[in-house]
Amino acid sequence: MCTSLTVCEWKKVFYEKMEVAKPNDSWELIIDPKLKPNEPDPGWKQYLEEHASGRFHCSWCWHTWQSPHLVILFHMHLDRAQRMGSVRMRVFKQLCYECGTARLDESSMLEENIEGLVDNLITSLLEQCYGERGGQYRIHVASRPDNRRHRGEFCEACQEGIVHWKPSEKLLEEEAATYTFSGASEPKAQEGSGYNFFSLHWCLFWAFLCVLVVYLQFSFPTSVFL
User: Fold this and answer.
1) CB 101, CB 20: distance < 8 Å
2) Strand partners, 45
3) Which of 53, 68, 69, 61 is nearest to 6 (CA)?
4) Which among 96, 141, 139, 90 is positioned nearest to 119, based on CA atoms?
5) Mode of pairing for the β-strands spanning 84-91 and 26-31
6) Which of 37, 54, 152, 210 has the smallest set of CB atoms within 10 Å of its CB?
7) What's the pLDDT tens digit per position in 112-138?
8) DSSP character string of the chain
9) Cα dist from 12 to 18, 174, 186, whole Å
10) What contacts 160, CB < 8 A, 6 or more positions away?
11) What contacts 126, CB < 8 A, 6 or more positions away?
12) In what order do the strands lie in the sheet with 64-79?
């Protein structure tokens, strides 16, 4: 039974494509939110999709956001004697950065994105479970260098130790330039730290001095000697 439209679409696409790839074998797709990276059961294989794209919807404040840093974990097993296989799947969630709630939210994906991800899954499955050449992996837009910084503190995959995001060269250059500019501006400020008689403090001092002189003139008029 499907728990959401996205899960139903995943199973539909997976079963249709596996029927073409391996029509004599029976495969099932199971959603397992407790699946752990790099900890497959004996005889199981792992495939990690690190460059998926999905849309998230906060169930608390209704904020929605698009993320090109969606991580999906698969564990796969084939029983050759029974000609039956199983795939366990976990889609890592993200926290809403608008309301700050600790509730992890699930993602939704477009059908064309799911088809590309299933193609990659089957490619890995054929290579690891059947020892066949699965073909070429499909490159997603999200796998290209990203000029935006990924907020790992809101990412469930990052919190579990999966390193799936690397800054682009452009982002590194921008951060280096910002650091160099801020660091170079400090010595200049120190070099010009002489007395500036037109600064705010000096202007207030001269104004106070003028007021004091006027006050003294009116309070103690100059004596006239005959």
Assistant:
1) no
2) 76
3) 53
4) 139
5) parallel
6) 210
7) 789 999 999 999 999 999 999 877 887
8) --SSHHHHHHHHHHHHHHHHH-TTSEEEEEE-TT--TT-PPTT-EEEEEEEEEEEEE-TTT--EEEEEEEEEEEEEEEETTTTEEEEEEEE--EE-TTT--S-EE-EE--HHHHHHHHHHHHHHHHHHHS-----PPPPPGGGS-BSS---GGGBHHHHTT-----B-HHHHHHHHHHHHHHHHHHHHHHHT-S--TTSHHHHHHHHHHHHHHHHHHHHSPPPPP-
9) 10, 44, 60
10) 36, 37, 92
11) 21, 132, 133, 134, 135
12) 26-31, 84-91, 64-79, 45-57, 107-108
Sign, CA dihedral 134-163-117-141, equals negative
Output the pTM of the full model. Answer: 0.68
For tokens 């503190």, the residue is 153
